[in-house]
Every structure is written in C-alpha cells, then in structure tokens.
Amino acid sequence: MDQFIRLTIRGISLSQIQSGIYVLLLEEESGRIKLPIIIESLQAQSIASALGKKDLSRSFTHDLFITFAKVFHIKLKAVVIYKLINGIFFSYILFEFEDTYKNIIEGEKKIEHKIDSKTSDAVALAVRFQAPIYTTKEIFDKAGIYFENGFPIDKENESFEEGIENGGFIFFKKEQSQKDLEKMTERDLNTLLNHAVVNECYELAAKIKKELDRRE
User: Phi and psi dihedrals of 80, rounded to 5?
Assistant: First the structure.
C-alpha cells in the first residue's frame, strides 16, 4: 500500500444541506489535509457506534458481518477509496481468507479478494476490523482540503484563480456566478464542492452540484 495515502477518521458532523445526511471527515497523518465525504444517517450511526461514541447495545448489519467473518476466518486487510466522480467516492474492501482445502494439502494458503463497496459501509467495517483506510494522491488533489492551525485555508474575497497560484490551495468566494462555474474543469468543481460543504456555503454547493449534473 506504499502508493496510497493512509487516512484516519477525524470526526462526523451533521450536514445542513439535507436532513439525515452527515459529513465524514477523514485526514492524512499530518492532519493538514482533510477529505470530507457525505454519508447517510444509518452509516454515520454505525461508524460512531464502532468508535465508541454511541449506545453500544445497538447492533448494526456491520456487526453481524464481523461475526460472519470470524466464523469463516475472513480478515479485512484494508479499505481503499480509489475514485471520485461528480462528488461520489468509490471504494473497495480488500479481504484475506484461508483456503481450507489448500491449507490442509499444501500448508498455509491465504487468498486476497477485492469487493466494491459504498465508502460509508467500507469505513464502518474498517473501524470494526481496526483495518487501515487509504486513498490515492489523485483523490487528494481533487477533493482534499488543506488546513492550517486547525482551520481551512480559504479567503472569502480571493478569486479561484488566485488560490490556484498559491501553492495549489483552493480559495473561493461564497458568491460564484454561473459563468465562473461553467469555466471551471470538473476536477476544480469537485474540489470547490467539498470546500463549500465543509464551510457551510450550501447555496454555492447547490450551484456547483447543478453544474456537475448538467455535464453528465
């Protein structure tokens, strides 16, 4: 996994864009770059439960899978967030399990297998398995938000173009015209969308999402 960036869970917060939707905030080891991911309420509760922040007496489907995995000697090795399209993150889960027949005949034999998964479900399982979560540099370049002293690096009155020139950091105005959005690449729009969500600029987020949907 040397080519990937390892992530940890920074926190989960309630989104103001839509009722019952949460923002899962992941960060790389230095804590300077964070990756916000929109998740649904049930998955948010499941992740929080596994982190020990909710009522542990409540059981989720992810807990049932843990029991299943233990019975059949399945180990979750890692979760990889590998693709981002129109604000949606795609992940796979890397499992390792024993081939019982080959284990008996040939000695110890372990097999790895990838399964595509919703990112929120993958993270909920990773927490329970205490497995690492990774992403790619490409996704960080697209959607990573840079923080300095615990705050997002942005200047309300700076233009998007000025932000690009400052070391690649994304700055934005809360008011962006439709013409400004139409000039941006899909990559820049995805980055701007994540900034708008984290900084609670929900009207701007809606405009960006509409422009991304128009390009499909």
Answer: -125, 120
